[in-house]
Amino acid sequence: MTAPLRLGIAGLGTVGIGLVKIVQNNPDLLETRSGRKITISAVSARSKDKDRGADLSGYAWEDNAVDLAQRDDVDVYVELMGGHEGPAKNSIEAAISAGKDVVTANKALLAIHGQALAESAEEAGKLIRFEAAVAGGIPVVKALTEGLSGNVINRVMGVMNGSCNYILTRMQDAGLTYQEVFDEANALGYLEADPQLDVGGIDAGHKLALLASIAYGTQVDFDAVELEGIGSVTIEDINQAADMGYRIKLLGVAQLTGRGLEQRMSPCLVPASSPLGQLQGGTNMVVLEGDAVEQVVLRGPGAGEGPTASAVIADIMDLARGVRISTFGQPAKYLVKARAARAAVSAPYYLRIQLVDKPGSLAKIAAILGDAGISIDRMRQYGHDDHSAPVLIVTHKTTRTAVDEAIQQFSTTGLIEGAPVAIRIETV
Amino acid sequence: MTAPLRLGIAGLGTVGIGLVKIVQNNPDLLETRSGRKITISAVSARSKDKDRGADLSGYAWEDNAVDLAQRDDVDVYVELMGGHEGPAKNSIEAAISAGKDVVTANKALLAIHGQALAESAEEAGKLIRFEAAVAGGIPVVKALTEGLSGNVINRVMGVMNGSCNYILTRMQDAGLTYQEVFDEANALGYLEADPQLDVGGIDAGHKLALLASIAYGTQVDFDAVELEGIGSVTIEDINQAADMGYRIKLLGVAQLTGRGLEQRMSPCLVPASSPLGQLQGGTNMVVLEGDAVEQVVLRGPGAGEGPTASAVIADIMDLARGVRISTFGQPAKYLVKARAARAAVSAPYYLRIQLVDKPGSLAKIAAILGDAGISIDRMRQYGHDDHSAPVLIVTHKTTRTAVDEAIQQFSTTGLIEGAPVAIRIETV
Fold this sequence. Notes:
Homoserine dehydrogenase (chains A, B); 14 helices; homoserine dehydrogenase activity (chains A, B); alpha/beta; homodimer; NAD(P)-bd_dom_sf (chains A, B); Rossmann fold; HDH (chains A, B); 3 domains; Dihydrodipicolinate Reductase, domain 2
């Protein structure tokens, strides 16, 4: 008879309560599968007296997460408070010092302090696990760390912020502007208190940085993620992209290149017929590419009580089953610092410019592209108002640097109105 | 310094050689990630002298897999020969008796003898792992056993035979008959030596039975899988289904109902816009539904050297990392015998009948459906030749039993030519 695995849960929001419900509702299932009873010793949250829709009377209460993390009757400290400093960080450090394993859904904390935390856990012989931090209910940390553990990973891609995908698909479906859908989503409570975490790509960038670390054996480096949010995506671009058989997604891509590790989180065009292109609404999708497995695609809910709690309990079950795999898939001391490569991988680009209607203006634009070494795959010019017209260009493969150079040159011609739009077309 | 994990590999076909290549090409990666060197001690296959495109000179050779499985310098016996009796079974039993863990890609063997083998492994304190047996490179055994381990599983669905999906999508794309595409696929070597394993749904049924055991904690029971192959799917049905927004897939579904465990492998209609409906060619897809996680979809290559070897090495890496999870996700002695439920879950059905052109014949058909308690969602009658016309019916939810009764009644009317077609519409 193995002793129960005793949890201390800090944070009783959606995910914390979801976890409590799973532990309360399916004790026999968890025990049969893991070989141990899973119990909750103590919980902690900001306010003790709030009704959270679950009976917490059987658990000790701690006002302070750091105290909870160090309790003698806690084997696994479950951090579900969020925040990349303060109580979350302090309590996880306290848990490790006190000899506890840690399960967390905190992507921001790990994306910023993951290496240091993994190292201290390792020195203490303890584990930090974070399946719930990436893509909610999708077991993608496990798929990458374990399921594809024999692969050299070639590329990791993902749509990992459901709110952004909701906004982009809703813009297209309803023909609304970014601002209209943003306001709507905000009113519905779909966005973080600081919406930039969502629409600025920060939240998804945290997730990408975590996956990149596992994929390439590198120290997690969120600062090196090239971030571009969806705020500049217009309904015109969405419609034009659709006309040409593409969808616009906030897509994260991590690739190890000869020039270093490239991590990008930015709006991209993907083929409408691809799994990524077909992804609607708040669902998440991660694409893993390895030298042996070729391509595996995982799709599922990226947030919500049940799905995120499902990922948290999976980590807990693994601990109960005695699985002891390092935080990032290999000992933290072997993780290397990757050189950050910016836009090292070439791609086709979608360009939209508002061209002044003068004889020879299109020729001038084409010449600038040619001088920048960019060849044109497709070009469309549309009917115009008084004195300017939109021109759409799909280039052959080129670099971001070349595109930026060309855009810089455009501005010197006096033939362009407004700011040119350049969106990468990711091959998927 | 941990000792190397030493493999004995029986079967040097596509998958065996794929595994050898991974071990040879990426030794440092495997060691860094698992904490142990992965080495090959010995190999075995039918013919020693065949050129297999990999250098095997460094490994001992055994003519007999049973001898290989018992070698002192083998820690993990990797069975990649196939076949559900004979050498595969004997050698796995020998390996377990000799105290080896086992990794196999053998779905037929485990679908038929999995319970007995898991029990003997368990008694010996050894593991049998089989990620490669289900859906090739997709880490679905891991996702279900570990990633969703905190979920009550509501339904498992999958397109798990790439050849069948290739045939069905090719029929639609090229407008060819089943027999034409079957012959083409056979000539291209896409089908098993006994094509019934593919097109009869047997191979996919094996995989479904394995997933059902993990999902529901039941003893694997392939005999209880209701099997229906794709041989009776016509291009007419594919086209009619497409007209109504559906695709026809060979879909496996496992559900635990109040009446027992339902396991079906049969052609089904699924919405064209769903991930299953969008699946083209030889790719596999598994849909896992749990009470907490809602729905997770996994998509990837279901066969081939690299993908299948990727799954085999993942199991080996888990063993190197010290992961000791029971074969079917819980101790074999706790797995229960499930009562087999046949068609317990109701669904809408697609019916196609060839109706003789007589006054009142359609009314008669409608009356029979009504008497069987089947209500009609949509009906279409087409222009007819001399004396009969196709009638398409989509029913509301009903049972297979009711549909079969109605079809039985149809035949007594003298108004039907040929055999009526009835295909389940799976809600996805």
